Amino acid sequence: MLGVVSLPVLAAVLTQAARPATLTPDTEAIAQVASVDGVPLAMLRLYVAAAPTCPGLSWSVLAAIGKIETDHGRSTLPGVKSGTNHAGAAGPMQFLISTWGGKAKLKAGSIGSGYATDGDGDGWADVYNPADAIFAAAKYLCAHGAPADLKKAIFAYNHSDAYVASVLATAENYRAKAAPKLPPASAGPLAPERPSGPDNITPRMRTVRDLIKTQFNPRYAIGCYRPDGGIPGGGEHPLGRACDFMLSTGGRLPAPGEQARGDAIAAWAQAHAARLGIRYIIWKQRIWQTRLPGQGWKPMTDRGGHTANHFDHVHISVD
Q1: Nearest to 165 by CA among 177, 154, 176, 175
Q2: Strands 105-107 vs 124-126: parallel, antiparallel or unpaired
Q3: CA–CA distance, 29 with 23 (Å, rounded to integer)
Q4: How far apart are CA 269 and CA 239, in angstroms?
Q5: Residue 59 near residue 37 (C-beta atoms within 8 A)
Q6: What burial class does residue 38 get, using C-beta atoms within 10 Å of its C-beta: 0-12 exposed, 13-18 middle, 19+ buried?
């Protein structure tokens, strides 16, 4: 039996959605999607909150399914607010009642083998409740192969190649429009910054980290501040001026898809290095330095192992 996802803290998320908040790059991106693409902010908060329950799943996939199925719950067709449609599907994410668990509304403690989920922690799994339905959709996709085989998972949701293509295209559109804006270009050299905040990194490094999180949705850890730096002299990590964007765990060589993600992160960092104050990038035992762009990527000496040679993560340091 699959477990029930219960998030009592979701009430705080929904409360936050109802009032203005200080925008970080991530929440600014969310607000841009809501205004540009017409996604109701309360629904968008749910997509974003539900995605991490399936590690590596992007909120944009849930949002795309919600858009295609019921226009984020706004459709007036049968089966969205009550009852079922001609195929027996119900709710904002259009679950078959049999897939949900046999009834449209189930007590959280009595859910059987279906995908019914108590997403808002009210004790009930209601197929018409957006929080419950969206968290259940994340659970369903995860059980059917997401994020490793996203096409397979989406096809399981709706057995149509055209549907899969439409979801992926809509998700990509949301992600592209969600990318936060870059800071304005500096008129001169960037002044050094001191680390601050609970993550103990500089504001410049925090901006780069958050932009990459939003743009590339990394599946693995992002390691920034550490007191010893891990290398002779410490490097930039103890100064809060460096982050490692991991692409695997346990020192293993990343899968091809994750290597492609690393290539994309490195290329993006190169393209925006001057604007963001990026000092250098290390990836695949090579270093690229902003102050020496004509040299391109320079090979580095062998330090031994995938991690030491930066084959399992992209390292970015800022001024």
Answers
A1: 154
A2: antiparallel
A3: 9
A4: 20
A5: no
A6: exposed
User: Can you read off the two tokens belonging to residue 222?
Assistant: 């992002």
Structural domain boundaries in the chain: 10-178, 203-318
Digit-coded pLDDT (tens) for 108-118? 888 888 999 99
Give dist(CA 12, CA 298) in Å, integer. Answer: 48
The alpha carbon of 128 is separated from its chain's Cα centroid by a whole number of angstroms, namely 25
H/E element, 45: helix 41-50
User: Structure tokens of 27?
Assistant: 């929440």
Distance of CA 250 to the CA centre of its chain: 22
**Residue 177: C-alpha distances to residues 25, 31, 40, 107 (Å):** 13, 10, 15, 38
The total number of residues shown for the chain amounts to 319
**Cβ neighbours of 283 (radius 10 Å):** 25
Q: 201-227, pLDDT tens digit by residue? A: 999 999 999 888 877 778 899 999 988
Amino acid at 199: D
161-178 and 25-37 helices cross at what angle (nearest 10)?
Answer: 120
Half-sphere exposure (Cβ direction) of 13: Cα atoms closer than 13 Å: 19
Residue 282 β-bridge partners = 287, 315
How much is the pTM? 0.56
Is it true that domain 10-178 has CATH number 2.40.50?
no
Tokens in use for 3? Answer: 């477990």
